[in-house]
Amino acid sequence: MDNKKEINPDYSGVTKLDVEGEVVSSLDSDINREVTKEDSSSSIDCHLSEAEAPTHSEENVATEDNQGERRGFIKFLCIVIGGIVSAVPFGAGIWAYINPLTREKGVDGDGFLKITSLDAIPDDGTPAKFSVIADKEDAWNKFKNISVGAIYLRKEAGKVKALHTVCPHLGCFIDYRSSKSDFFCPCHNSNFKLDGSIVSGVSPRPMDPLKIEIRNKVEVWVKFQNFQPGHDHPIPLS
Amino acid sequence: MKALINWIDHRTGFRSLTKEVLLENIPGGSRWRYVWGSTLTFALFVQFITGIFLWMGYSASSGDAWESVNYIQNEMTGGWLLRGIHHWMAQAMPILLLLHLMQVLVDGAYKAPREVNFWFGVILLKLVLALSLTGYLLPWDQKGYWATKVATNLANLVPFIGPEIQKLVVGGTEYGHHTLTRFFALHAGVLPALIVLLVIGHIYLFRRHGITPAEPIKKKDAFFWPDQVFKDAVACLAVMATVLFFVIWYHGAHLSSPADPSEPFSAARPDWYFLYLFQFLKLPAFAGDKEVWGAIYIPSIFVGFICLMPFIGKWKVGHFFNVGVMFAFLGGAGALTYLAKHEDISGPNSSNYLKAILDDERDAKRAIELARHVGIESTALNLLKTDPKTQGPKLFAQHCASCHRYDGHDGLAHSLPDANSLNELKQRTSTQNRFTSSNSVHPEWLARFKDSGSTNDWKAVESILTANKEGVFEVIAGTKLKEAPSAPDLKGFASRQWIMDLLTPEIYISNRFFGGTIHKDGDMYRRFLNRKVTKYDNEEKEMLKLVAFALSAEAKLPLQAEIDKADAEKIQQGVDHLIDDISCINCHAFQEPDPDVEGPDLTGYGSRQWIIDFVKNPEHEKFYPESNDRMPSFGTKKILTEKEIGLIADWIRDDYFKSSKSSATN
Prior knowledge:
The structure holds two protein chains of two kinds. Helix content of chain A is about 35%, strand content about 25%.
């Protein structure tokens, strides 16, 4: 306590000097630059040395120069070491955090999934919603046969068409309105015809069509994909 | 730039604040002994950063905790590094805390007017230890699960409200989801928040009173910046380098097998800095209802004493008393820690400890392998519980190994040699070749010895092996020395080689097969092997070999799938020989039921269903209706469920998931 009082005058002097003095971009470089520009009459270091040893006289200017250089180097080392040790936990954390960007996504088969049989789709052209059942890898879990999404299937002139249930605008779930016989996204009022084309609203593109294959005469297989929202054409998420 | 900084400074005053922070005067100049507080702050900083990133990958539920930690450790890029830094920095903190505390004590920095700050420090110490305790459970592995159970059970001993406290801490009477959610909230929320507040208070009070210089002051005063900062930075670098060394050496942090309430883990120990307490409770003085003294009263009294130290230290003699007591405590704690380790390594139960570590090591490895290649649909524990490679040997060791062997051991590679006594075994096994002679140590055991070389616990195993000869022999000899096998060795059961050995007269009556059973004198040996096979010419021997091929093909062993397919023709010939030339069907049914014969049915011999049916009831008319020798009817007597028998069968048939790597080594 006593010691602190003793240096107080110098201490306030230092502060004042600095406010008037150098321009700095950060505290570290502040003190650093002052040192490298070393002008023994105006630098902090001079005052520091005075604070430490008020008895210093003119003869010591030369050694103070040396000391200032050494001190500058120490400050430089402090910043380097501080930077390194602080970077380690951040580095490790960020490396793990960006794992989703580097993780390889396993692709199995041609991507087609068996959805239902032809008979389950109404013949009159009204759409029917079907769950997409697939194996799903979810971080540490591998789920077998769980629903991973849903699609609308409808017969159009005898041919089966598949539309994604997710709105191309911002990803809400599009409803089928039987009363108006159209598709309607409840989030931002996008309105689609049964073939998926836009009637009104903010969607940037029609509802996303999905590739379809009829296998073994009655099995409906669909290549189920999700697409990025917001673009005027479908871009698969990968 | 200048304008911007001036603008900010004008509104925040950050320049004077940073000056205030950096230009703290240090009487007597910077010194290495002052670095510990800074290294602790740094360690906390590292724990906060790594902890938050770990949080992004961790799931606090009993069905997901091990799974998510395993995912961080073994699947995420850099996850091992992240978890490793968090784990090893946590190991460093008790050491740094101790150094800081001792420096404060020795230099007298705890005395007036710094009492309150000293108490802040004591509370911080407790909080950091609480962080360790709560963090130990979070991976939900065997090690953390069983060690933490002991700790929460101690809460039970708190007078009057113990059981209630325990229920609140655990989130019920049993460990489960809520134990983890509660521990995690403490570990990542409550405790860190308290620590931040107290550290701010601690540093504020420290600055208020200034540093207590270590006497004698030899050098002139200096500011905190840059001399002391430099020393602090170098110390932090050293701490970080040490931590990174351990992280890389152990490739992260050890994760034992998924927590299993039905599988006690006799190697469960608290982290090393709690070991002295653990050992303290083993003292006979705290037996029975006196345990509360060792667990609660004495530690509380001691902490109370520490809090009173500033007052005792007012007098010079009091100060010496304080420092003396602390050193005595350290000596005692050190001795207890040593005792705890020593007991594990060379105490009477060290072989149990060793086996628990080895078995857990194997299960952990298998769980990681299955999680990666098979995938976790429900939980990792469930993967292990339905895995023949894991459960088969355990069930075999428990139910079958009293008579049977698996490649000479009990299934778990705790070798059971034919020695009659431990002494005889010792005489046969010289110290030098203990680990190298395959007669004394089972090869699979040796392989495990080499495999798990780099694990955390392996050091302990090694020291057991070097320190405790008794333990080694006990391990070699298995749980306890047993008599020579009295039933066939089932390794490779129904494989071509196994059947050919079975059909070799002298092997048939050896202990590897039926030497210890009544079948030694049965018709198979007397009327067939001894009377006929011993006199076979080369042509007949060739026929017998084809019979072995044919019989082995009945098992449909996955390992033989390819050669069975390639040898379809030979197998067909073998079937013909089996029926006609060698006439096995005189005594055995084959391809169609035959109630008149006494030998076991050879249809589907060694197949999964055949084994299950046999184990369920060996006295069934298909098998040994008349001549079953001591084998219990595991199914009909409800000793084993069909599922369990299936696990044993699959394991013996080598019918379970193998990653390409492990099948290559097999």
